[in-house]
Design brief:
The complex is a heterodimer of chains A (477) and B (350).
Chain A lengths: L1 H22 L3 H20 L5 H15 L5 H45 L4 H39 L2 H14 L6 H10 L1 H7 L6 H10 L9 H12 L5 H32 L11 E3 L7 H36 L1 E2 L2 E2 H15 L4 H9 L7 H13 L17 H10 L4 H12 L5 H11 L2 H30 L1
Antiparallel strand pairs in A: 2-3
Chain B lengths: L2 H27 L5 H10 L2 H17 L6 H8 L3 H13 L3 E4 L2 E4 L1 H24 L7 H8 L5 H10 L25 E2 L8 E7 L4 H9 L7 E8 L2 E6 L2 E5 L1 H4 L2 E5 L11 E2 L8 E7 L5 H9 L7 E7 L6 E5 L2 E5 L1 H4 L2 E6 L5
Antiparallel strand pairs in B: 1-2, 3-8, 4-5, 4-8, 5-6, 6-7, 9-14, 10-11, 10-14, 11-12, 12-13
The chains are: A mainly alpha (477), B alpha+beta (350).
């Protein structure tokens, strides 16, 4: 009986399949058209509409302004600049507060507690100086800017303004083989690359989405701005008279960010013309009606979906990295620690790129977050120069309040203007942090694209640093 | 820091070395001409590939009721006569073909083998057309490359994902999994008489240079044609309101299904991109050159025949343009708006 049924089914299916040959190639279209026809006939009979006209007229008036030829771009730059300014200035105070609580206050208490229960020095080092400190650092520097930036950004999105930005920017990105919405993921990347990668979900075309994910790392993220500002004020601001220093160094940082946008577009273009040429591509951009933002909902979703998820991932990676940071500085083979071995071994290689072993090691072990690169560099530099009186002990990452003191440590470590410049370039062009790499894997579900997004920027970074250095030597030495 | 000096001296050499490394990287990855592309070309030239290509060609001859001999195989596969005779020898030994007076024909085993290869080829063409951005003129060659290296299971999985398509993008039927194929339908455009109306059902994709030109002419399967004149073998016809004249060589690449009775001539469409801001139109359809995800997306948004559309606003840079359709505003790029057909509405009140 069952067999008969099965056979009958097979027969019907093969009949149906043969019928499809006679129905021709437009079958799918015809079906969709008839569905729409039925739906609109039903809607005409049953749905009454009122009041939509007036609301839409207002929308159109706003759209005429924000997408106009002369006002469109200035309005966009002003709004985005406002968001960044609010983030940077607003985050300063809570960041300081968190740092003084988690690092200046809690860290000594934990150390004291460990001493009182006679914890062995190495365990105390691994757990408190390594794992705890790295985690505390990441939370203190990452949480406040994200908690301000994401809600503001989500608010603009909810308002309906961001799709208009994509609409205006599309022609530039189209030329780079990308989607206008990449303007949004890029802006999001200036806050946090991991969040920028997640934001690429709004692009529904596979090729453009991959391009947006791979190039997001070229947006200078929140964790790298402080590095850029510090190094620029030490090495580039130092070149000009004091009253011009802040303007010139700010200009240098903005220059690096613009260089990042440039790389983002060029790499997008290159990818769409080469490895991603065959990936499917489709464009669609809905321009939803404007509506009053739902503030509480926005706050909730942006804090939970974006801030907490990203922070949680960063913390998860920060703990083991903190342990590694402490261990490489404290585990000795013979006379030297692992860190010193690596730095001495990699120095000749690093000099070719105008960097040094300290920078390379710092970028490897501080992979969980760009925020802890500078503290790691300072700790390692103190370790190899043997400077006394600064720092908080071997393997303990630290930062100094005074730019001058930081400059002294770096100069003692053999840093020149060229090293500073290359660090700024390398900070822009290196692998994404582990949180972003993990997010890229979660989003693309592909090892291949994760590897490409990780190593493409490093290769570019080494290339750019190499040529900067060699040209520098050719002309200035 | 001591090394800084020595590095300074060597920098000229290093600089040169760096340039060479960058050039080598480019050479390896350069599309079509680079090292990686070269390796994949060499991989193509093996025996199995030739054998399968020969079977496909033999089936093609059989389907179109042409005779086939050694020379035509050599010509079609672009190999020397020597290689062709070796190839036929192998086919005979494997029991895939029989030879009768120079005429080579498929055995039942050979036919089912070639139908399998054709199924794989056409499914992949469909996939390339709908789910990737591979250029139209490259589908055939790309599928030719893929068909020899994929497994039957992968292809069936792919077919199931796409809803088991029954036509390839050129309008050729895809053989069923049991090797069934409908009889060829329609007539060649070159054989049509004056005054006949029909619908294009197939455009042959080989040779590529001719196919590319037909694509440039804007001809595609599904299009209505009306033959206005046949003169010295040249066929003149109207397709979408435009007159087009093809030589017999070109016209014989196109297969047309005749439409019986008096069919009203399909009116000429205009393109959505020709609408000025504020103008209204009724959508007539989407060009078959807009496929796959892009097509589905547009239809999901309400771009279907019969719905009303109006151009509402230009982006700050001029392209895309915001169109209002079914109560929503969507941004459409010019390249897409060129593929959407409309009939303009002159009256301003709906």
């Amino acid at each position: 009986m069952n067999d008969n049924h099965l056979k009958e089914r097979e027969n019907i299916l093969s009949e149906a399949n043969k019928a499809r040959w006679d129905l021709g190639i437009d079958l799918h279209d015809t079906v969709i058209e008839s569905i729409y026809e039925d739906a609109s006939r039903i809607a005409r009979k049953t749905v009454k509409q009122k009041g939509e006209k007036a609301a839409y007229a207002l929308d159109l008036r706003i759209d005429k302004i924000v997408t106009s030829r002369w006002l469109g771009f200035p309005i966009m730059f002003l709004l985005l600049a406002l968001v960044f300014w609010l983030t940077v200035t607003g985050a300063n105070y809570p960041s300081g507060l968190l740092a003084s609580f988690l690092i200046d206050y809690m860290h000594p208490i934990l150390k004291g507690a460990a001493a009182s229960i006679h914890m062995p020095w190495w365990l105390d080092g691994v757990l408190i100086d390594g794992a705890y400190l790295a985690m505390a650092w990441v939370i203190a520097v990452m949480l406040p800017p994200m908690a301000i930036f994401f809600p503001l950004f989500t608010l603009l999105e909810d308002l309906g303004y961001l799709p208009r930005v994509a609409f205006n920017m599309d022609s530039l990105f189209r030329k780079a083989g990308a989607h206008g919405k990449q303007a949004l993921t890029m802006s999001m990347g200036f806050g946090c690359n991991a969040a920028g990668v997640i934001a690429a979900r709004v692009i529904d075309s596979p090729r453009e989405r991959l391009i947006a994910i791979i190039t997001n790392n070229f947006s200078l993220c929140n964790g790298r701005w402080p590095t850029q500002i510090l190094i620029a004020s030490i090495f580039i601001g130092g070149l000009v008279p004091a009253q011009l220093a802040s303007v010139v160094s700010a200009g240098a940082v903005v220059g690096i960010a613009v260089l990042g946008i440039f790389f983002s577009l060029v790499v997008s273009w290159g990818l769409s013309k080469s490895v991603l040429r065959g990936e499917a591509s489709a464009f669609s951009l809905e321009l939803p009606p404007y509506r009053p933002p739902r503030i509480w909902q926005t706050l909730y979703t942006s804090l939970i979906d974006r801030t907490i998820i990203v922070l949680w991932r960063a913390v998860i990676f920060a703990v083991p990295a903190g342990i590694v940071i402490w261990l490489v500085a404290n585990v000795h083979i013979g006379e030297l620690s692992l860190a010193e071995y690596f730095i001495q071994w990699s120095n000749p290689f690093a000099f070719v790129f105008g960097l040094n072993g300290v920078i390379l090691l710092a970028y490897i072990i501080a992979i969980p977050a760009n925020e802890i690169v500078i503290p790691t560099i300072l700790m390692l530099t103190v370790l190899i120069t043997g400077a006394s009186g600064v720092g908080a002990g071997t393997g303990v990452i630290f930062e100094l309040n005074s730019v001058g003191d930081t400059a002294n440590i770096l100069h003692a470590g053999g840093w020149t203007l060229l090293t500073g410049l290359n660090l700024m370039l390398f900070s822009l062009l290196h692998n994404p942090c582990s949180t972003t790499i993990y997010t890229i894997f979660k989003e693309t579900r592909s090892v291949k694209w994760t590897v490409v997004s990780t190593f493409l920027p490093i290769v570019l970074g080494f290339m750019v640093c190499f040529f900067t250095t060699q040209i520098w030597y050719l002309f200035f030495v | 820091m001591i090394t800084l000096l020595t590095v300074g001296i060597q920098s000229g050499i290093l600089f040169f070395f760096g340039v060479v490394v960058v050039l080598i990287i480019f050479w390896i990855f350069w599309p079509k001409k680079g090292l990686i592309a070269l390796f994949s070309k060499i991989k193509m030239n093996n025996q199995r590939v030739q054998l399968e290509d020969a079977l496909k060609y033999l089936f093609d001859c059989e389907y179109n009721k042409n005779l086939c001999n050694m020379n035509s195989i050599a010509g079609n596969l672009n190999i020397s006569d020597d290689s062709a005779s070796q190839l036929i020898e192998r086919l005979l030994v494997l029991g895939l073909v029989t030879m009768d007076d120079n005429t080579i024909s498929l055995t039942d085993t050979g036919r089912s083998y070639s139908l399998r290869v054709i199924r794989v080829h056409r499914i992949w063409e469909r996939y390339l057309a709908d789910e990737t951005s591979v250029a139209q003129a490259d589908w055939h060659n790309e599928a030719d490359r893929i068909e020899h290296f994929v497994t039957q299971e992968d292809t069936e999985k792919l077919a199931a994902q796409m809803g088991n398509p029954v036509f390839d993008p050129h309008g050729d039927p895809i053989p069923s999994i049991d090797g069934e194929l409908p009889e060829p339908k329609g007539k060649l455009l070159s054989n049509l008489k004056k005054g006949v109306t029909g619908r294009i059902i197939h455009i042959e994709d080989e040779p590529r240079s001719i196919y590319e030109q037909l694509v440039v002419e804007g001809l595609y399967p599904g299009m209505q044609v009306y033959v206005t004149d046949v003169d010295k073998g040249k066929t003149t016809f109207i397709a979408n309101g435009d007159e087009c004249t093809l030589t017999p060589l070109f016209a014989s690449q196109i297969t047309v299904e005749l439409l019986s009775g008096t069919v009203p001539l399909a009116p000429k469409y205009e393109l959505l991109s020709s609408l000025a801001i504020g103008e209204k139109a009724e959508i007539a359809g989407i060009s078959p050159n807009c496929r796959g995800q892009q097509r589905r997306r547009l239809m999901d948004l309400g771009v279907v025949a019969g719905s009303l559309v109006s151009a509402e606003m230009k982006s700050a840079s001029g392209d895309p343009i915001g169109y209002r359709v079914m109560g929503a505003t969507i941004g459409i790029r010019k390249t897409q708006a060129d593929l959407i057909f409309v009939h303009k509405k002159n009256d301003t009140n709906e």
